[in-house]
Design goal:
Layout lengths: L10 E7 L5 E2 L5 E9 L12 E7 L2 E5 L13 E3 L4 E8 L4 E8 L6 E8 L3 E2 L2 E2 L20 H14 L5 E6 L7 E4 L25 E4 L13 E5 L3 E8 L13 E9 L2 E10 L4 E4 L14 E6 L1
Parallel strand pairs: 2-9
Antiparallel strand pairs: 1-3, 3-7, 4-6, 4-8, 5-7, 8-9, 10-11, 12-15, 13-14, 14-20, 15-19, 16-18, 16-20, 17-18
Length: 304
């Protein structure tokens, strides 16, 4: 793979986008135009975010574009590019012909793009020309959801496969599949789908067990993500990515310690709580955020 950086912006480029039948003089069709700032080799300049002014002529109605987060930025004959690109629109009239769009910005070569407006038959306000229908074979069939019986069977299989002296009746609602239980040990797994392992562990975790969750489910939103019964009187330790906000279910029952668990420069805040034999424990989502990838929480139970 070859990676290249773009040079300084020298010109603007306009690229029209229409439906399969072209731009139709129906009075309701819309043509889109991508406007980009490009370097001498035609590469988009990702850091250029200057102002571009537009001039439209011919049988079309200017509908303009939009700048993210800027109030009243629509319908103007100018706008700023974002990461070197933006998109504007022109609505057709009921007249065929040719439209011309010109884009200008100080210091850059002007871009000019023409687009034919095709005549369409309209009688008494109605058109016999229908939109192009996609070919059915090109559509990807949706997956068939499992039946309720299959879901129950899968949940029962999870319960049968988990063998533990600390956890009972484990129920997990995440999409990542089965959960497993493992002894907490140095260089032992932290998740059931990732190679990262526990570094040397604190003495107070020795003799404990860990529920191995899928790290891929780190941002799966659910109020009933994980539930289990404690087989013994125990101290629970919850490791939660230090970069994530703390969800409401952590407040009250869980006490945040002043310590962090660190593996290869990754930091987890440590929470703990006491549970009694037979007590049911419910954990909510690791986070409701959809931002940069983070770590899934890690749950440890140590007998008292």
């Amino acid at each position: 793979m070859v990676q290249r950086t773009h040079g300084p912006a020298v010109a603007l480029r306009l690229t029209p986008l229409t439906g399969p039948s072209g731009f139709l003089a129906s009075g309701s069709d819309v043509a889109l135009f991508d406007v980009e700032a490009v370097d001498a080799d035609g590469n988009r300049c990702l850091t250029w975010e200057g102002r571009v002014d537009f001039e439209l002529s011919g049988p079309g109605i200017w509908r303009g574009g939009y700048n993210s987060g800027r109030i009243k930025s629509t319908n103007h004959t100018w706008l700023n590019l974002e990461a070197g690109i933006n998109r504007v629109s022109v609505r057709s009239t009921m007249k065929a012909g040719e439209i011309e769009l010109i884009a200008r910005s100080e210091g850059l070569q002007v871009a000019v793009q023409t687009l034919e407006v095709h005549a369409t038959e309209i009688e008494n306000g109605l058109s016999r020309q229908l939109p192009v229908i996609p070919v059915q074979e090109s559509l990807t069939p949706l997956p068939v959801p499992p039946t309720v019986e299959a879901q129950h069977a899968a949940a029962d299989m999870v319960k049968r496969q988990v063998s533990s002296s600390m956890f009972d009746q484990i129920s997990y609602s995440g999409p990542g599949g089965n959960v497993t239980v493992a002894k907490v040990r140095a260089n032992g797994p932290m998740f059931n789908d990732h190679h990262i392992v526990f570094a040397p562990i604190p003495d107070e975790w020795k003799g404990g067990e860990c529920i191995l969750l899928p790290n891929a489910d780190w941002n799966y939103p659910a109020v009933d993500l994980l539930q289990f019964e404690s087989k013994q009187n125990a101290t629970l330790y919850l490791l939660h990515d230090a970069r994530l906000p703390k969800e409401g279910w952590l407040e009250g029952a869980w006490e945040q310690t002043d310590q962090q668990f660190i593996v290869a420069q990754h930091h987890w805040d440590i929470y703990q709580r006491q549970v009694s034999q037979g007590e049911s424990v419910l954990l909510g989502s690791n986070t409701e955020e959809k931002g940069d990838k983070r770590w899934m929480m890690v749950l440890i139970s140590v007998p008292n």
